[in-house]
Amino acid sequence: MNLKRSIAKRVNRIFAIEKGKVAERPIINLYNTNYDKRVLISYIQAPFRETNSFKHQNYLTSHIVAESFSERCYNVDVIDYRGDFDIEYESYSAIFGFGANFERSFYSKRKDIPRIHFITGAHPDLQNAMSLQSVNDFYDISGLWLPTEANIIADNCYYSTFGPDASVILAQGFVFEDHKKRVKGRLHSLNNNILGVFKEFRPKEGSNNNFLYLSGSRLITKGLHILLEVAKQRKDLNFYIVVFDIDQDLSRYYHDLLWNSSNVFLYQNLRMDSEEMRLVVENCSYCIAPSYIDGLPGGTIEPMVAGLVPIVSKYCGFPSEEFIFELGDLSVSGLNETIDRALSMDNQSYLEASNAVKDYALENYSVSNVKQALLEILDAELL
């Protein structure tokens, strides 16, 4: 088995990178500006080469980062976080991002170049511990060992984690505080951004027993098995599951539930702006993320804009809010209890929570808000 190739495949799935694509050459001076300063962004390049597929928030995140540096008078170079390119790190005024190419910048002779680590999940130790727990928990349920369904960070980017001048993490709450306790450097919280395709939806008129699970890959670490075990028990509830795809072994184990059940409805590889996605979101009252580890997951914050009340684990990185229902325990019983707590709201209480969720998401996860917050971080770190 080619371990390097296997690791690359896992990383590609985490960031929704198409199979078969390789790291492309750096994009030099993205906006053709003539400033005195240069920044190297080690992230993803596809958003600058392709049109928006409306399947992942990182399309807009990439533009937010690049535009923010440009507005602070940096010529912007973008390099894929993967690959092994010959980079003249010493020529840059700032370096931002993550991955192998960000890590290699620490081997440059110039320590004085400001380096800002961009964290789209959690601290790697927490990330890996919770990912391992997820596959262990599923093994206890099923007897199936599916390690590739864990969201493990295989590469040890030690300098990136512990040596940058500052870090920016897409998380608040428990995930933010956990990272803060593990590192000495300055840590900034930044909200994830929405695509905003549901922002024009009409406010909810009442609640029903329909729950949305919207996620990408690594579905065991995203807690899909916890949701499906609840679905087995709760025939009084309907679960709409929207994912990119499902591991074959996982799909076979839950075959009857996923394909023949009266209360589970599976959709795969939908664009966020598709009519089918719109109908699913309009039909649901709650969105569920029983994730073992995350960073303000796009599959949760996006439907919040449509007024879906979130039911999440503390490992999703949300702050404490009255209208965010947090699991007391990451388990089948914990999810069941939290669902019952959400369903205990009368119709008026639900409408108030739904409207509060919508307003909160539009204000805090909008592109303009996230960009302004990042600009303030850059001003604090680079001026």
Question: What's the helix and strand layout?
Answer:
Blueprint: H1 3-14, E1 37-43, H2 46-49, H3 58-71, E2 74-80, E3 94-97, H4 100-104, E4 115-119, H5 124-142, H6 158-162, E5 166-169, H7 173-182, E6 186-189, E7 210-214, H8 224-233, E8 238-243, H9 248-253, H10 255-260, E9 264-268, H11 275-283, E10 286-289, H12 298-304, E11 309-312, E12 325-326, H13 332-343, H14 347-364, H15 367-382
Parallel strand pairs: 1-2, 1-3, 3-4, 4-5, 5-6, 7-8, 7-10, 8-9, 10-11, 11-12
Helix pairs in contact: 3-15, 8-13
Could you tell me the mean pLDDT? Answer: 91
Instruction: Identify low-pLDDT runs.
Output: 1-20
Give the total of beta strands.
12
The assigned structural class equals alpha/beta
How many domains in all? 2
Order of helices and strands: HEHHEEHEHHEHEEHEHHEHEHEEHHH
CATH architecture label of the largest domain: 3-Layer(aba) Sandwich
Main beta sheet: 6 strands, parallel
Q: Compute the CA-based radius of gyration.
A: 21 Å
Task: State the helical fraction.
Answer: 25-40%
Number of helices: 15
Strand order of the largest sheet: 2-1-3-4-5-6
CATH superfamily grouping of the largest domain: Glycogen Phosphorylase B
Seen as an oligomer or otherwise, the chain set is single chain
Q: In CATH, what is the class of the largest domain? A: Alpha Beta
Strand content: 5-15%
**CATH fold label of the largest domain:** Rossmann fold
Shape: globular
For the termini, the CA-CA separation is 48 Å
